[in-house]
Amino acid sequence: MKVLIAGDYCPRDRVAAFFEREDYASVLSEVRELTSQSDWSIVNFECPVTTSDVKPIEKCGPNLRCTPRGVEAIKWAGFNCVTLANNHFLDFGEDGVKETIATLNYYGIDYVGGGLNIEKASSVYYKEVAGKRLAIINCCEHEFSIATASSAGSNPLNPIQQYYTIQEARNNADIVLVIVHGGIEHFQYPSPRMVETYRFFIDAGADVVVNHHQHCYSGYEIYKGKPIFYGLGNFCFDNPSHHKGIWTEGYAVTIDFKSIEPSFMLHPYSQCTDEPKVKLLRSEVFNNSLDELNATIVDPSKLQIKTEQYRTDHSRLIGNIFEPFYNKLFLYFRYRGWIPSFVGKKRKIAAIDFIECESHRERLLFWLHH
Q1: To which H or E segment does residue 298 belong?
Q2: Gap between the Cα atoms of 78 and 234, Å rounded
Q3: Which of 29, 101, 212, 284 could make a disulfide contact with 7, Cβ separation 3.0–4.6 Å?
Q4: One domain for residues 121 and 253
């Protein structure tokens, strides 16, 4: 069984213009050739489908959306299934979730990781493919999209719950694939916590773990004979502010489950650069970059240094959240270091406690929402 997995897909801007004209070949012709070589193909559907004037939810970051042409395009490209556990699935509330699911059903695209409540969103996806039973578990980090017992959304990352779900899948399928949406945006390394969690999923019984979300590709490792991919990057995600650089680079992966230890092939590509299309690459530069990423990922000390350096470089932006003033002028001067921080040590310690402790974080989020 060969399964192709691709990263973040959001048909917007130039890509959306092509799709609304039903011109899918100009953007995805090379992808169609790739999917035809696999038994099953999966892509992360990074935006809800909405055709009516639906009110967006309140959140940080953009509220993404597409029309049914976005689903028709991936159908044309040869994708069979989408993952819905991501931080944009609930951008237009329950109405957006309902229309997305209805559109996927209409075009015959399977889905996993999202639903009208947590029970449906967390369900294991089972599929008979090439004579084997495939199980897919899809979850995402907590960020404005999580389903509850009575509300729609995505399946949350919860290693305890995922452990039991993997056990269920292991008992009912030949192959268990875990796909996670998480990580630090625009940072090409997983955090040590991600490495620990994804290795745990392998220990729990998963055959492969795949991650996306960061809008840039990361490396991979082989852990106990099983591959873990820490970031596929954007698959097709046009952005007028990013027509070059890591935003436009990524890879899909074909996993071959013909033996106990799965093998794989990477398919690097560029996407939405000067032209709004996905172009497969044969790049030595890509391979060299991937080698460097992989070497850092498997070295805990190097990975810790990379992670801490990134957090240090971006700590000022996080600190602004807790400053006593919050307006554009203050943030302008504070960001440039022209005025000192008003956050003392005690407040920093209190903030760490409220952020790192799950129970205290729940209290903090409750206060912020009320």
Answers
A1: none
A2: 18
A3: 212
A4: yes
In degrees and rounded to multiples of 5, residue 231 shows phi and psi of: 170, 115
Least confident among 142-151, 215-224, 322-331, 353-362? 353-362
Are 297 and 321 members of one domain? no
What are the pLDDT digits (tens) for 183-224? 988 999 999 989 999 999 999 999 999 999 999 999 999 999
| Token pair for 134 | 């495939």
pTM of the model: 0.88
> Do residues 28 and 35 make contact, with C-beta atoms less than 8 angstroms apart?
no
Same domain, 40 and 132: yes
Rounded Cα distance between 348 and 363, Å, is 17
Q: Judge if 21 and 161 occupy the same domain.
A: yes
Domain span including residue 237: 2-304
Burial grade of 66 (CB within 10 A; 0-12, 13-18, 19 or more): buried
For β-strands 114-115 and 110-112, DSSP reports them as unpaired
Q: How confident is the model at residue 149 (pLDDT cuts 50, 70, 90)?
A: very high
Residue with the two structure tokens 């625009």: 186
**Do 325 and 237 share a domain, yes or no?**
no
Quick one: 56 and 196 in the same domain? yes
Question: Cβ distance 313 to 238 under 8 Å?
Answer: no
Paired strand residues for 223: 226
CB atoms within 10 A of CB 245: 10
pLDDT score, position 260: 80
